Amino acid sequence: MSTDIAKKEASALPNYAPASDIVEMEDGFHILLDMPGVGREDLVIDLKENEVTISGRSAYAAPEGAKLLHQEFAAGDYSRTFALSDAVDREKIKAVLKNGVLNLYLPKAEELKPRRIEIVSE
Amino acid sequence: MFARFLPSLRRRPEEPEAVRKPKDVFELMDEMLQAPFGQAGALSRGFPSMDVKETDDDVVVSAELPGLAPEDVELYVEAGRLVLRGEKRRESEEKDEDFHRLERSYGSFYRAVDLPAPVDQAKAKASFKNGVLTVRLPKDEAAKPRKVAIE
């Protein structure tokens, strides 16, 4: 706990919770997160017992001697935590980062998919 | 059928405001936390977010466009302004979808920024990396700072 606080103080960058869509499909959940400026090497996905935390950092190299005329975004830290339901198969979680969007695929566990129960007559 | 619940950047005329009802109290609270003064945030500032920088030789404009590919964006210089337009589409359109949360926005966008100096449009270069578009526009020779010799 105390190390978490220390980490936050050490970083002078602003923190953002990335905008997210959560879509459920038959085979699992997709969490889509907008994380513009974050490269693969700056992205960390932590899976704990029943939550998944996504954190990333965007950094921009300013051109030499540049004068900032107008600013609406800058380097920052992204972080967001989602609770995982027991329906998710933790072993098969996949993450794809493309064009600044992280697609986190959380497949449903086999045993939770609908299945028919055989009736045995005696 | 969920299309009408999608937050769109430019709502189409056939979708009146009243159609988009919040699903429950939690969604209402989420909306309020994101935009405490009505439609503030992304819309008032415009989409996409943009930075404009200037060096001695170039004007550098960057924009946050997560989820867009180079072919989705159109760029041109018009009357001293850089115009950016395009459309952000949903990644997938499947029937068996159930939305638990929708915070990212979709739709068409148009944004123009004033350029601080005349630029040579023919030499402009644009690159896309990790959802961030960077456009480097070299200044017109006449607009570059020049030392004046004192006689």
Structure commentary:
The complex is a heterodimer of chains A (122) and B (151). Chain A is mainly β and 122 residues long. Chain A has one domain: Immunoglobulin-like. Helices cover 7% and strands 47% of the residues of chain A. Chain A has a four-stranded mixed beta sheet with strand order 1-7-5-4, with no helix packed on it. In chain A, a hairpin with a 3-residue loop joins strand 4 and strand 5. The radius of gyration of chain A is 20 Å and the shape is elongated. The termini of chain A are far apart. By secondary structure, chain B is mostly beta strands. Chain B has a single domain, classed as Immunoglobulin-like. Chain B is 9% helix and 34% strand. In chain B, the strands form two sheets. Chain B has a four-stranded antiparallel beta sheet with strand order 1-2-8-7, with no helix packed on it. The radius of gyration of chain B is 20 Å and the shape is elongated. The N and C termini of chain B lie far apart (75 Å). About 12% of the residues of chain B have low confidence. At the A-B interface, strand 2, strand 3 and strand 6 of A face strand 1, strand 2 and strand 5 of B. Strand 2 of chain A pairs antiparallel with strand 5 of chain B, so a sheet runs across the interface.
pLDDT < 50 stretches of chain B = 10-20, 38-44
Classification by helices and strands of chain A:
mainly beta
Structural class per helix/strand content of chain B?
Answer: mainly beta
CATH class of chain B: Mainly Beta
**Helix and strand succession of chain A?**
HEEEEEEEEE
Over all CA atoms, what is the radius of gyration of chain A? 20 Å
For the terminal residues of chain B, how far apart are their CA atoms?
A: 75 Å
Which protein chains make the most extensive interface, counting residues with beta carbons within 8 Å of the other chain's beta carbons?
Answer: A-B, 36 and 38 residues
Side-by-side strand order of the widest sheet of chain B: 1-2-8-7
Q: How do the strands of the widest beta sheet of chain A line up side by side?
A: 1-7-5-4
The backbone outline of chain A, from C-alpha atoms, is elongated
Average per-residue pLDDT of chain B, rounded, comes to 78
Q: Examine the secondary-structure arrangement and name the CATH architecture of chain A.
A: Sandwich
Summarize the amount of helix of chain A as a percent range: under 10%
- Largest sheet, strands/sense/barrel of chain B: 4 strands, antiparallel
Per DSSP, the total helix count of chain B is 2
Radius of gyration of chain B (CA) equals 20 Å
Overall morphology of chain B: elongated
Helical percent range of chain B? Answer: under 10%
